[in-house]
Amino acid sequence: MSITYRYADLPLETLPERFNAPTLRRNKLAPLHTGDVTPDFSLPAAQVINAAGLPEDIHGRSRPLVVAFISFHWNGYAEKRLQELRDLHADIQVMGGDLLVLSDEDSTFFNILTNKQPVPFPVVWDRQHKIASQFGIYSTTDPIWDRISGVNEDVPTPGIFVLNPNGKIVFDSIDLYFEKNIPARDLLSAVYAAGHKSEKAA
């Protein structure tokens, strides 16, 4: 008599190492969106990869801030996203804003992604995905490999946000399935509008 087991029938400790243990409590990603107020987050000096243009006080800004997340483990998508950010950086500044890029890896991996070419904007290592979690684009219970083939690391979902000087999100773009470009026109319009509203308020 033969007995056929399904993986779901086996105790977790008996699963082969190459299989990820199934998530018992699955909570879907819940990204922040336009209208939400961002939580307080810090940028420890030890985690700064590139300090060029880094705001002295992330919470005492007078200019809009574009926050973009990036991961070396996004493979070709990461290279495309990095080039988009390079192309957008000068326009963001012209519109009155600043750009902050948060990498899920330290300088070793980020320098591989950039081919050791300098970037003109500040980059900070988001250690243990702490800030990505606060923005709702990373969750251990909703792993990215369930949606995207070829990504096998525990990484955040691509996301880019525009924050006004009060920390309120005035634009967001979340790419759950790695199929979008950054909507540059809408992003830049949001930066411009947020900057001019703060000037009028002052």
From TrEMBL:
It comes from the Bacteria. Residues 32-196 form the Thioredoxin domain. Pfam families: AhpC-TSA. InterPro entries: AhpC/TSA, Thioredoxin-like_sf, Thioredoxin_domain. GO terms for molecular function: antioxidant activity; oxidoreductase activity. This is Peroxiredoxin.
